[in-house]
Design a protein that fits this description.
The structure holds 2 protein chains of 2 kinds. Chain A has helices at residues 2-30, 33-37, 39-62, 69-74, 81-86, 92-113, 119-143, 168-196, 201-232, 243-268, 272-295, 308-332, 347-379, 387-404, 407-410, 418-424, 426-443, 449-472, 479-488, 491-516, 620-644, 651-655; strands at residues 518-524, 529-532, 535-546, 551-561, 564-569, 572-576, 581-585, 587-591, 594-603, 609-616. By secondary structure, chain A is an alpha+beta fold. In chain A, strand 3 (535-546) and strand 4 (551-561) form a beta hairpin. In chain A, helix 17 (426-443) runs antiparallel to helix 18 (449-472). By secondary structure, chain B is mostly helical. Among the domains of chain B are: 24-99, Orthogonal Bundle (Helicase, Ruva Protein, domain 3), CATH 1.10.8; 105-134. Chain B is 51% helix and 0% strand. Chain B contains 5 helices and no strands. Chain B has helices spanning 36-48, 65-79, 84-95, 110-136, 150-169. Chain B is elongated, with a radius of gyration of 30 Å. The chains are: A alpha+beta, B mainly alpha.
């Protein structure tokens, strides 16, 4: 019964979406407030019905209702409760339901909080949002219905893929989807603006918080996925340039460019045509990502079976929305007037530089990911494009980008003075040079490029500090004055500094972990030791343990540094009888921002066990940097909300008594 | 189907849940060459070579039996005194371009290799042209005349009034 309610609610949501996709737009055209007013309630109701549908599927999973095919294939009665929840989206059908849940959530948020939007824009935005929603409801109902029943109820489920039985599944996909799908709002705003034929700085101001929120979630989602892969897969890598990873990186790169170009549009009323295009492209890349992951096209070369109707359906959605949006753009964009003149050396110029390089980086990933598919389709020739290609092409595009990160915020709008900015950055540059020299001295030979990478990361972080010093006059004016100025700075300024220093942190982590990470692969008998850098690990022996739905073999290790015990590490292998498969659970020992990483191989006949031990210096900075970027975005968002919402003149006078 | 390990991204590939995850790992202790310099070269080469039965994994990462065979083959060639290029050539002749994770520049891959620089140059060129054109025609860049409805004009007046008050209060 519950499954049928979920199914029915989804059908109702589709009906609502169809109404919402036509009526408000007609209302906006006719300037009819009643028709436009339909959008708000339908958007909220749509979300409510999808939520009911999602809750129904969740109930089926939690109650282990194996008469539902989807539950039977992806759940097991002995699974811990948390995984019964997360396995709702640990499969194709359920994850698509999560996709539309988030899509309708964003629609409802615009309906609820978009009170300051002009009525026609709001109506059009919600209508466009509903087009996307209707297409995906149809997709689920026609090709990926999670509520189908089996003719006979099986006694037990087939269990969730063991590798997904991890807390990562609770965090990573929802965050990633919040990011992917969040960009649909920017897309809807862009299409609405093109339909109305009117766009101004206020548009950028309205669209920015949504873009920022989506970008934050995507940043954190990608980072969490990367960390999950790092500890779950057992060989210590954090980024593999795999097509499906690239599918999430492309919207991130385009979304980052969009965030920056929207700033120019909001403050200077320039780059309008480009910003609209970026908004369309960012969500298009999210759709392409969904297509690549969902259709199975990437794996078609191999032996995986996947349902071709799904791929064709998503491809149709893709062609319809991307093609339609770009056609509308080509038709209406020339009518949009450009505003705001500026010299090439200016804040605008720096942000355009950012956009140019981010777009080129995004195009590189795009071409690299799809080239093998296209070449195979056209000539039948098989080539591989993997990590070595991306490292060689993506890296050089990111270096100039990082170099300009500290310069941008110091540039004045309209017309800047490169020499002046260079003078202000001299401290940061000197710091970076000292760091480079110190690194060279410390490593005494070895990789030549890595110290420069560290210097670059240091430059980016010092640049953020310089920005703060410049804005507050710290070191030039009395401390109390600087403090007052710091209080008066908008939160978005701090957001920028935080996000940029987060970028520097991530860069530092990537350079250090990939250059100076060391590994040791050995076979060990009980009581034997292995040494790496200053650490000695003693293999104390194996124990077995029974988990809720798996059995586990644990290897116990004592870790010593200079003879002193600093901890234990317990890498394990888990065997899941339901699927007759197993996973490795790597053991991690964190020392500052660096980690020792230990994973188990197969036991050998002579009683020894093969282990792989890594030391990853500063590896945690990679993800910590992403968290800092997320926080920077959040800080900026909290500022936005104040400015976007109703004018609050009380905010300023309230600061006065503090002086 | 050969055994292969998942990547986090294939976590997204929920459709392929049938893939069996095997926890064994790639390079085994018995494969490692006694000569550290040679071993380093072997590892570097391994990262450039694709495990052809896997999903976008290098033979350095993969634990498939084929990957192990290829790793041993690479080490054999190196021990026989081959240069890095000779090893790659040897494998390309045997398995085709597909084995190289970094495809060689050629007619078929020219677009791929030229894309990054190409997009950058085209973008920069378009920017220069646009900026020049705009400077030559300053008339077309004036503020956009937008039509406001009566309601919007009213709201604008109200907002202007409000912000006027707030600026009056601030220092």
């Amino acid at each position: 019964m519950i499954a049928e309610i979920g199914h029915y609610a989804l059908v109702l949501a589709l009906g609502l979406a169809l109404i919402q996709s036509v009526v408000p737009m007609a209302g906006a055209r006719l300037r009819d407030d009643t028709l436009m007013g339909v959008a708000g309630p339908t958007a909220l109701a749509q979300f409510a019905f999808v939520a009911v549908s999602f809750a129904a599927l969740t109930a089926c999973y939690v109650g282990s209702d194996f008469s539902v095919t989807n539950v039977f294939e992806n759940s097991h009665s002995t699974m811990p409760l948390i995984y019964k929840f997360t396995s709702v989206w640990g499969n194709h059908e359920g994850s698509m339901l999560l996709w539309v849940l988030i899509l309708s959530l964003f629609g409802a948020l615009v309906a609820a909080f978009g009170t300051n939007l002009p009525a026609t824009l709001k109506a059009n935005v919600l209508a466009v949002q509903s087009w996307i929603a209707a297409a995906f409801y149809l997709f689920i109902l026609m090709t990926s219905n999670p509520f189908l029943r089996l003719p006979q109820t099986p006694f037990e489920g087939r269990d969730l893929n063991p590798i997904l039985q991890d807390l990562g599944l609770a965090i990573h996909p929802p965050l990633l989807y919040l990011g992917y799908v969040g960009f649909s709002i920017s897309f809807s705003f862009a299409i609405a603006a093109l339909v109305e034929g009117r766009i101004d700085a206020a548009w950028a101001r309205w669209v920015r918080p949504w873009t920022l929120a989506a970008w934050m979630c995507l940043t954190l989602g990608i980072a969490m996925g990367s960390y999950w892969a790092y500890y779950e897969l057992g060989w210590g890598g954090f980024w593999f340039w795999d097509p499906v990873e690239n599918a999430s990186l492309m919207p991130w790169l385009a979304g980052t460019a969009l965030l920056h170009s929207a700033v120019v549009m909001e403050k200077r009323n320039a780059l309008k045509v480009w910003t609209i295009l970026l908004a369309i492209l960012t969500f298009s890349l999210s759709l392409i990502g969904t297509f690549l992951v969902r259709s199975g096209v990437l794996t078609s070369v191999h032996t995986f079976a996947s349902d071709p109707t799904r791929g064709v359906f998503i491809l149709m959605i893709l062609v319809l929305f991307i093609g339609g949006a770009l056609a509308l753009y080509a038709w209406r964009a020339p009518a949009l007037k450009q505003g705001g003149l500026f010299a090439p050396i200016s804040r605008e110029g720096a942000l355009i530089f950012n956009n140019l390089f981010l777009t080129a980086a995004c195009a590189t990933v795009f071409v690299g990911t799809l080239y093998p598919l296209a070449l195979e389709a056209l000539t039948g020739e098989n080539i591989s494009v993997g990590a070595p290609f991306f490292n060689l092409t993506f890296g050089p595009l990111f270096v100039p980008l990082l170099l300009v990160v500290p310069i941008g915020p110091l540039m004045p709008w309209k017309r800047g003075d490169l020499l002046g900015v260079a003078q202000r950055l001299i401290g940061a540059a000197a710091f970076a040079l000292i760091v480079i020299a110190a690194t060279f001295a410390a490593i005494g030979g070895g990789p030549v490029l890595a110290p420069f990478g560290i210097g670059l990361a240091a430059f980016v972080m010092a640049g953020a500090v310089t920005d703060f010093i410049e804005r507050t006059g710290l070191l030039r004016v009395p401390f109390a004055v600087a403090l007052t100025r710091a209080r008066g700075l908008p939160r978005s300024a701090f957001g920028t500094m935080l996000a940029h220093s987060g970028l520097g942190l991530s860069a530092l982590g990537i350079v250090c972990a990939s250059t100076w990470g060391v590994e040791q692969i050995v076979s060990l008998k009980p009581n034997a030791s292995v040494s790496l850098r200053s650490y000695d690990l003693t293999f104390d022996g194996m124990v077995t343990r029974q988990g809720p739905n798996y059995s586990e073999t644990i290897a116990k290790f004592t870790v010593r540094q200079d003879g002193i015990v600093i901890g234990t590490m317990e890498p394990a292998k888990r065997t899941f009888p339901a699927r007759q498969s197993s996973t490795t659970e790597a053991a991690l020992l964190t020392r500052g921002a660096s980690q020792l990483y230990l994973s188990l191989g197969d036991p050998n006949d002579d009683g020894s066990i093969t282990v792989r031990l890594y030391h990853k210096p500063l590896v945690l900075l990679i993800w910590l940097g992403a968290v800092v970027m997320f926080l920077g975005g959040g800080l900026s968002l909290s500022d936005r909300r104040l400015r976007i919402g109703a004018p609050k003149p009380a905010a300023r006078p309230a600061l006065q008594p503090a002086e | 189907m050969s055994v292969m390990r998942h990547r986090w991204i294939s976590i997204l590939l929920f459709a392929i849940v049938l893939m069996g995850a095997s926890p064994a790992f790639a390079v085994q202790p018995d494969e490692i060459l006694p000569d550290p310099a040679l071993e380093t070269r072997a590892r570097t080469l391994s990262r450039e070579l694709r495990c052809m039965v896997c999903q976008n994994q290098s033979i350095d990462d993969s634990d498939a039996p084929l990957a192990r065979d290829l790793r041993l083959l690479v080490r054999e060639r190196l021990k026989a005194g081959d240069s890095d290029t000779q090893v790659l050539d040897f494998l390309t002749v045997r398995y085709g371009q597909f084995v190289l994770l970094r495809p060689r520049f050629g007619w078929d891959t020219a677009l791929l290799w030229l894309a990054p620089a190409g997009v950058l140059l085209i973008g920069a060129g378009a920017l220069v042209v646009l900026l020049r054109r705009r400077r030559r025609m300053p008339d077309s860049t004036g503020p956009e005349p937008s039509k406001l409805t009566a309601a919007e004009s009213g709201r604008l007046a109200e907002l202007l009034g409000k912000s006027g008050r707030s600026t009056a209060k601030s220092p």
